[in-house]
């Protein structure tokens, strides 16, 4: 498969980005790799590059909140192969990443040849996850998780960025300064965010976002 165009690698570790880039270029030497090392960079990159052929995403980048980055990317690139790469290799994390829309899951402990094989398989239309993880028969996500994912996906890129900064404890004036907009604009974003998430205030919005944390979503058999 001669994949061309742009490939996005979103990971905050330079050495691992280099390893992923090496794996990608072995399979698709004609492609152009675009890198992002934070959720903020990821959002800016996706705003300026609309036609990616492959997406590789670390769940735990700066500014990320659980599976929110995956949900954000999956909604905007619904037909693009999306691979989660993560140091969180527990089976329930892998299952949930797949249920939230990932086409495959590559653990960061994987050898280079395993990464290459995984990327090749996913770009052929297959799903891929580590061989030692048995397929999960029953869905792990309930209706509450799915409704929350839809709410997160409905946010505009700027609203998603504001919500992430809100979750990190920044005040309206700090967010406005960092985004180079007025406080009135941030308040308008907040109103829209609260409406879409079905909450009334900042605290409730943060709690809703925390429900997508990897640690928050229950392990099978503990609910």
What does this structure look like?
With about 220 residues, the protein is of the alpha/beta class. It has two domains: about 5-125, Rossmann fold (3-Layer(aba) Sandwich), CATH 3.40.50.2300; about 145-210, Arc Repressor Mutant, subunit A. The protein is about 50% helix and about 10% strand. The chain is built from ten helices and five strands. Strand 3 (about 50-60), helix 3 and strand 4 (about 80-85) form a beta-alpha-beta unit.
Question: Helicity level, as a percent range?
Answer: 40-55%
- Tally of discrete structural domains: 2
Class by alpha and beta content: alpha/beta
CATH superfamily of the largest domain: Response regulator
Shape type = globular
Tell me the radius of gyration: 18 Å
Query: How many helix segments?
Result: 10
**What is the count of β-strands?**
5
Mean pLDDT: 87
Q: Tell me the fraction of residues in β-strands, as a range.
A: 5-15%
Low-confidence stretches: 218-223
- Main sheet properties: 5 strands, parallel
Termini, distance in Å?
A: 43 Å
CATH fold-level name of the largest domain: Rossmann fold
Strand order of the largest sheet: 2-1-3-4-5
CATH hierarchy: architecture of the largest domain = 3-Layer(aba) Sandwich
């Amino acid at each position: 498969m001669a994949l061309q165009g742009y490939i996005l690698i979103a990971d905050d570790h330079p050495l691992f980005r280099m390893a992923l880039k090496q794996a990608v270029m072995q399979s698709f030497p004609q492609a152009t790799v675009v890198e992002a090392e934070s959720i903020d960079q990821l959002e800016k990159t996706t705003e300026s590059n609309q036609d990616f052929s492959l997406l590789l995403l670390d769940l735990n980048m700066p500014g990320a909140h659980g599976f929110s980055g995956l949900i954000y990317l999956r909604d905007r690139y619904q037909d693009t192969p999306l691979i989660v790469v993560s140091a969180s290799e527990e089976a329930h994390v892998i299952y949930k990443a797949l249920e939230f829309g990932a086409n495959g899951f590559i653990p960061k402990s994987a050898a280079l040849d395993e990464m290459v094989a995984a990327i090749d398989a996913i770009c052929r239309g297959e799903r891929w996850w580590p061989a030692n993880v048995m397929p999960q028969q029953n869905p792990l996500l309930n209706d509450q998780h799915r409704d929350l994912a839809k709410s997160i996906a409905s946010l505009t890129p700027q609203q998603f960025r504001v919500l992430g900064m809100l979750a990190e404890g920044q005040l309206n004036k700090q967010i406005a300064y960092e985004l180079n907009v007025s406080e009135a604009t941030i308040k308008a974003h907040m109103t829209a965010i609260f409406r879409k998430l079905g909450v009334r205030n900042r605290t409730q919005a943060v709690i809703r976002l925390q429900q997508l944390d990897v640690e928050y979503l229950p392990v099978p058999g503990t609910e």
